[in-house]
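User: As part of a screening pipeline, I want to sanity-check one entry by hand. Below is the sequence and the SMILES for flavin-adenine dinucleotide. Please return the complex as structure tokens so I can compare it with the automated output.
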Amino acid sequence: MLRPMSDSYSALALARHAITRSPWPAAWRKAEPRKGYDVVIVGGGGHGLATAYYLAANHGIRNVAVLERGYVGSGNVGRNTTLVRSNYQTDGNTQFFEFSLKLWEGLSHALNYNVMLSQRGQVVLAHGPGQLDSLARKGNTMLLNGIEAELLDRAQLMRLLPYLDYSPRARFPLYGGLLQRRAGTVRHDAVAWGYARAADRLGVDIIENCDVTGFVTEGGRVTGVRTSRGEISAGRTAISVAGHSSEVARLAGLRLPVESHLLQAFVTEPVKPLVDHVISFGAELFYISQSDRGGLVFGGHIDGFNSYTQRGQFPKVQTVAECAVALMPAISRLRILRHWGGIQDMTPDGSPFIGRTPVDNLYLNAGWCYQGFKATPATGWCFAHTLAQGEEHPLIRCFSLDRFHHGDGLDEYGLGNWTWKQ
Amino acid sequence: MLIIPCPDCGARDYTEFRYGGDANRSRPAHGGGSREDWHDHVFVFDNPKGPHREYWQHVLGCREWLLVERDTASNTVIAVHRARDREMAR
Ligand SMILES: Cc1cc2nc3c(=O)[nH]c(=O)nc-3n(C[C@H](O)[C@H](O)[C@H](O)COP(=O)(O)OP(=O)(O)OC[C@H]3O[C@@H](n4cnc5c(N)ncnc54)[C@H](O)[C@@H]3O)c2cc1C
Ligand SMILES: [Zn+2]
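Assistant: Here is the complex for your manual check:
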């Protein structure tokens, strides 16, 4: 079949386009839905697109469609605070997120698309000796799994991050921190666009403005989807719709251990380079980094009650600003330029579900809470494996949908089964 | 801002309240219920995009537990009752 293929991106291509002034081709085709596919993926966020790419690249399954109700990048993949890291301490999480970080490290080359990975290092802060002990434990778990980690005392912290509040009046005194140098940030839009383009080049149809409104079933098996652009049949169907997981799963008669909650994020006016790392506060859920443009990017905790509004509550803005100023009094006069919200699929233990569902031919990837962006490559890789083999990849067996039946909750932060407290 | 009209205290910011979660999840009878029932009670949510019945306690006011019906797509409060009135009427 003849189709316009986008050029490879390279210095040579850049020079050629500069000289010939020919327009760059669109990064991916505007595909029209066909009658049917081997695999149909519902949701064109980072996870859905990555899954499609690895189905084609790793398993040779190219007759694949990604159905996105809005446009690529309109969901959480374009709303997150871009933090990637692998400093986990629970078995299952540790290995999965390290696998993901390794994939991030090679991603720009694999996709022929610069995703702007910046391994600037992340520091998690301790505000008391007990907290520093628990960070030491986490660091040891990482080291035992072959992941680098460095424990910093107060003096080392002062050298690395001199602009934090070390004064005797600091509301939360600083005792030290845990540094992962390979952690950092990735340009989130580039991840969506890069996976979309790479999947498209391998033959995947990316169909935007295509709302999935129901499933076609035959004798209890899902055999296709109903959409705003007609019925599409599917060998296997995958749900990967983040904040709308419950709504889409309900169309197949499933109720999930998932609740949708709103998370806000913020960016200030740009300033000169100040924050070289990603810093995570230890007294509240709060983290901050600086974008290439100079804006300080930060976020905090979910709003505290389930919501699909995608519009934040003001009191959270205040809490987050209080955290920022408690940590870095120097930024108290910076103005916040923008703030926005995304709908997160929260679970009772803060961990996701990837794999088969009780419905034949229907696969689910949901419940990513705060951590779905850093998981994007590994989720795509392992979910594609699962869709291709009909059996879960070993790295995601800990994320099974029925784990609470067996008492196998994966509660990294030990918060209990309240979705809105995770 | 989500504002909840408390039957005792009038309209108040949601920050005066403690969220108590989905009110439709009924607890299986003590000593009864299958493992499935308990699993669903503890872990599973309807999570609708639309009207949702939920508990809020007015901790910084009258301390009454309220049963609130709220549209999760717009945060519009549809109805508020004292939870005890509703629980007794069941
Ligand atoms: C403010 C904020 C900050 C965050 N910060 C971080 C962070 O620093 N690090 C981190 O690891 N994670 C972070 N996350 C979490 C992370 O963004 C998400 O877990 C992850 O992006 C979810 O996967 P996704 O990219 O596939 O989701 P999405 O991009 O939301 O993709 C899901 C897609 O499904 C589509 N969809 C929904 N219903 C339908 C339907 N019926 N038919 C067709 N399509 C449908 C949606 O339109 C959407 O595009 C953050 C989240 C938010 C909101
Ligand atoms: Zn009251």
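Points to compare against the pipeline: The helical segments of chain B are 35-43, 83-89. The two ends of chain B are 31 Å apart (CA to CA).
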